[in-house]
Amino acid sequence: MLLWTGTCSLKTPGDASVVRFFFWKLNVCVEYLFFKNEMAATVATPVTPTEHDPDRCGSEEESRGAEAEESGQPQQTGPGAAGSHSRLSKLPLARIKALMKTDPDVSLASQESVFIIAKATELFVEMIAKDALVYAQQGKRKTLQRKDLDNAIEAIDEFAFLEGTLD
Amino acid sequence: MAERPEDLNLPNAVITRIIKEALPDGVNVSKEARRAISQAASVFVLYATSCANNFAMKAKRKTLNAGDVLAAMEEMEFERFLEPLREALEVYKKGQKGKKEVSEQKRKDKEKKVDSENDKSREEEDEEEDEERMEEEAEGEAEEEEVEN
Predict the structure, then answer these.
(1) Crossing angle for the helix pair A111-138 and B66-75, nearest 10 degrees?
(2) Domain check: are B5 and B44 in the same one?
(3) Where does this protein chiefly localize (chain B) (predicted)?
(4) Nearest CA in chain B to A85
(5) Domain boundary at B50, B77, B104, which?
(6) A chain contacts of residue B30, beta-carbon cutoff 8 Å
(7) Which of A108, A110, B29, B141 falls 20 to 30 Å from A99 in CA-CA distance?
């Protein structure tokens, strides 16, 4: 008898996240409830020897693993992630804090303030990307280029602080 | 150590993901544009920090807090960020509260375990307490939310 174990780490802002694994071969549907911030659960279920289930679970884990690798931070994987970001902030708070501390006038920053700056930076990146896209589309291009960004910075008041700061 | 503050760049992969999610499908971003956006983001952090710090200093505080940052956003003419930032802050604060409870419980556990190292019978009690604690956490959170409301 084969035992399949998988680790599931899913965090949602809601109070509970429901994970459903469908074992099509066996037509078994298993539901597990995970409480908020108690992210990882090791699931062990006795499974009669099949070829597809491990692949299916493997692919799910792989896609999750790929996402975690892309983010470049170990925050979203495994039990140790401690839900510290819970998909709220994609940017690493430690790096943001390090940036903030390069300002000699800044002595201490609360965790909340670091988080808000991280979130604001995210919104800023979205905003500048969308505004630069307008200029790319004007040039009938589908690829955003450096000059589109320069145009956006020049044209939009909120981006005035960026003038002369980029290489 | 970084030579300039701007050398501390945010991870490229994350920046790329944020850009891609903001733009419609089929749109690409050149490497130079990506690098420039990443740099702009770093400058943004520094500018926002500096602005927020001014508000903190005005209030004679040495620690930046969330309010300072929100005030800085207004000052920088990014009022459109204020609503989503406030919402995100609420969710974040709730998450932090949950974490505190977990870490406090862990601390209590450690103390108990040190005491009960020689006492085997207590181990069984701990297991029961684990389950009770899980329930307490859920209840505790519900209570706190009620208190807030």
Answers:
(1) 30
(2) yes
(3) nucleus
(4) B92
(5) B77
(6) 143-146
(7) B29
Q: Is B63 helix (H, G, I), strand (E, B) or coil?
A: strand
Q: Could you give the CA distance from residue A15 to residue A47 in angstroms, rounded to a whole number? A: 30
Is A142–B64 a contact, with Cβ atoms under 8 angstroms apart? no
Residue A110: is it exposed, middle or buried by C-beta count within 10 angstroms (0-12/13-18/19+)?
A: middle
Q: Which of A13, A108, A142 is nearest residue B91 as measured by Cβ atoms?
A: A13
Q: What residues of chain A lie within 8 A of the CB of B26, using their CB?
A: 142
B99 with A119: Cβ contact below 8 A: no
In this complex, the residue of B22, B47, B64 whose CB is nearest that of residue A129 is B22
| pLDDT tens digits, one per residue of A55-104 | 444 444 444 444 433 444 444 443 433 444 446 788 999 999 999 999 99
The average pLDDT across B94-108 equals: 89
Domain tally for chain B? 2
| pLDDT single digits (tens) A96-139 | 999 999 999 999 999 999 999 999 999 999 999 999 999 999 99
User: What residues contact residue B96 under an 8 Å CB cut-off, 6+ apart?
Assistant: A111
Does one domain contain both B72 and B88?
no
Nearest CA in chain A to B76: A158
B1 and B64 belong to one structural domain: yes
Closest Cα in chain A to B52: A113
More confident residue, A160 or A75: A160
Residues 6+ apart with CB under 8 A from A102: B2, B5, B8, B46
Whether B13 and A72 lie within 8 Å, measured CB to CB:
yes
A165 to B22: CB separation less than 8 angstroms, yes or no: no
Do residue B73 and residue B1 come from a single domain? yes
Domain range enclosing B30 = 1-77
CB atoms A107 and B88 under 8 Å:
no
Indicate the pTM of the whole model.
0.61
